[in-house]
């Protein structure tokens, strides 16, 4: 992989919390800063496409993501996305030829000390390089076909469907 297109859409991974009542906003994407800190050996471009909690995403948003991917020269695309509708977006993006697309996110914000975000990003970077063309969901240390995974809200993890 020479170049990686990173599309950020918001979600918990970029959330900033302000008080005990869970008042939050979605901040600036953190993925570019993390990858620079870790001195990755590839070029990347971060495209902050939207700042939405994924429960508010709709097919119009998904169409915009699809359009950006199709117009991109990069064959490898990583999308940071809220976990609630990540699978829906991954399924929507199925069928884009010539691209390996990986969606990942976090169950706790990247700015928290005990976050899964950094682990998920690392797994997603490895997956986007190793997986064949198609769309993949990377969460909880696993690579999922979006047609065979669901988010188990009670257990707070992704699992086979």
From TrEMBL:
PROSITE patterns, A to Z: ASN_GLN_ASE_3
SUPFAM superfamilies xrefs: Glutaminase/Asparaginase
GO molecular function: asparaginase activity
Residue numbers annotated as active site: 12 (o-isoaspartyl threonine intermediate)
Ranges of residues in domain L-asparaginase N-terminal: 4-156
Record Pfam families: Asparaginase
Binding residue positions for substrate: 54, 83-84
Stored PANTHER family: 60 KDA LYSOPHOSPHOLIPASE (PTHR11707:SF28), L-ASPARAGINASE (PTHR11707)
Protein name: Asparaginase
Organism, as annotated: Marinicella pacifica
């Amino acid at each position: 992989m020479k170049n990686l297109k990173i599309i950020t859409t918001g979600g918990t991974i970029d959330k900033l919390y302000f008080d005990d009542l869970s008042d939050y906003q979605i901040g600036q994407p953190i993925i570019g800063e993390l990858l620079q800190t870790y001195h990755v050996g590839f070029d990347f471009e971060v495209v902050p496409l939207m700042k939405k909690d994924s429960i508010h995403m709709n097919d119009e948003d998904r169409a915009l993501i699809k359009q950006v991917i199709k117009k991109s020269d990069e064959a490898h695309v990583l999308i940071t996305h809220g976990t609630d509708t990540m699978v829906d977006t991954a399924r929507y993006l199925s069928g884009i030829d010539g691209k390996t697309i990986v969606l990942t996110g976090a169950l706790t914000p990247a700015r928290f000390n005990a976050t899964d975000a950094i682990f998920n990003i690392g797994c997603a970077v490895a997956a986007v390089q190793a997986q064949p063309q198609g769309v993949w969901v990377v969460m909880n240390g696993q690579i999922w076909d979006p047609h065979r995974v669901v988010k188990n809200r009670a257990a707070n993890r992704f699992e086979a469907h």
